[in-house]
Amino acid sequence: HGVIVDELSDGFTCTLSFRADDGQRLTGGAVDLEIMLPVYVYERLHLATDRRWTVIAPREAIQVLM
Questions:
Q1: Dist. CA 31–CA 40, nearest whole Å
Q2: 38 or 29: whose pLDDT is higher?
Q3: Is-contact 18 66, C-beta < 8 A?
Q4: Which of 17, 31, 49, 59 could bridge 6 with an S-S bond, Cβ 3.0-4.6 Å?
Q5: 3: which strand partners?
Q6: Do 17 and 4 meet the contact criterion of CB atoms below 8 Å apart?
């Protein structure tokens, strides 16, 4: 469980910054996950107003970029 704390958009893709509620950072940064999704999905899910999320991701859906 957590909250979207920031977002960026280039008009086609939104990048959302997610911070988990438990207070333990998964990374050394201020957020735990960056979630990228198309703008039409962002708008359809009303993410501009619904900032609280429960994130569940299967292992095969996770990509680690270094």
A1: 24
A2: 38
A3: no
A4: 17
A5: 19, 52
A6: yes
